[in-house]
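## Example record

The block below lists the input lines for one assembly entry, exactly as stored, with component labels intact.
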Amino acid sequence: MNERVSVLLKNFNIEEFQKSLIEWFQEEKRNLPWRADKDPYKIWVSEVMLQQTRVDTVIPYFYRFIEKYPNIEALANADEQELLKTWEGLGYYSRVKNLQAAVKEVQTQYGGVVPDEKKTFSKLKGVGPYTTGAVLSIAYNKPIPAVDGNVMRVLSRIFEIEDDIIKVRTRKLFEELVEEIISREDPSSFNQGLMELGALICKPTSPDCLLCPVRDHCRAFQHGTETRLPVKSKQKKGRTVQYIAAILLDERGKVVIRKRPDEGLLASLWEFPNEEVISGKKNMIIDFENEWLDKYGANVDLLEPLCVVEHVFSHLTWKIHAFVGLVKGELPQNMKVVAFEEVDEYPFPVPYQKMWKEYKKKIAI
DNA sequence: AAGGCGTGGAT
DNA sequence: TATCCAAGCCT
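Predicted structure tokens for the full assembly:
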């Protein structure tokens, strides 16, 4: 055993801790849709959706997704654009692309059965150390750690660990620790119990220690240090990028939309034509019209401002100055002209959904 | 190792 | 209003 871990486990009653945690979990666990059965596919889908995403946000998406893609085969055969439309608004869109790639792999290489071996399952696209432990412990009852943000918060308090949880090395320490304390009889309830405790009791701010089933095991509670843990260094916030974007109508009154590149930010989603505003430029409208003339040979006439959409991503901020305008001329390959009612059939990032909503509001008046 | 990758909720 | 996120993974 790791020396650090063995020191942490001194005077720690593993069996009592497991018993208290698991009994509490059995009694208090929330009734969540992915807990209805032990279908490895559905548990996998839920875990991917839950990556960096709140339970309340995921629930309606999970119902819709499973209704549309009830099993491995259905997801493997799904149309990617339809899939992205189903994921629209959940964010981190590469998750669903990776999930489909992984499910296709399961379909062709493993006869449509989700692998139950750590070595095999963890090689699939989008499946990292957390998802490996979560799916294999919950669906197959394998004693594999599933260390997420909840688990690091809970364990950093119980063992008074002050390592910065933003670091990869710290997550590995927690995994080594869980290797030692995980229940071999019920690893599923143990892993879920730690996460559920983090979600319901051992919350980031104002933890409800008096309701905690394992407070007798908690060193932070003994010393009153729980609100100082876990230690997490701040991440810097990103820069702001300004755009001018337009709802452009062609001569037949159809709407111009454009597909984003298949890699990078908001990959393969659609947007309204836009150009980055280089700071220092004087008139963004004239610049936009000229740029389109130069780049595409299209005549654009921006008629009036629509709104300004500010959208904060995890690593940057967009400020979109939205306009309504007309366009004449040929359009490039990645652009498409669609009827007003067809716009909603395409997957759009939230900032462009806001822009479209403003437009619909405006023309309804 | 550290930064890219979304979104909406809580405080 | 500003900040920090919430069941991470990829490169």
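Residues 46-55, 57-58, 92, 94-95, 98, 125-131, 134, 146, 148-151, 192, 195, 198-199, 204, 232, 234-235, 237, 314 of chain A lie near DNA strand C (CB under 10 Å from a C1'). DSSP finds 15 helices and seven strands in chain A.
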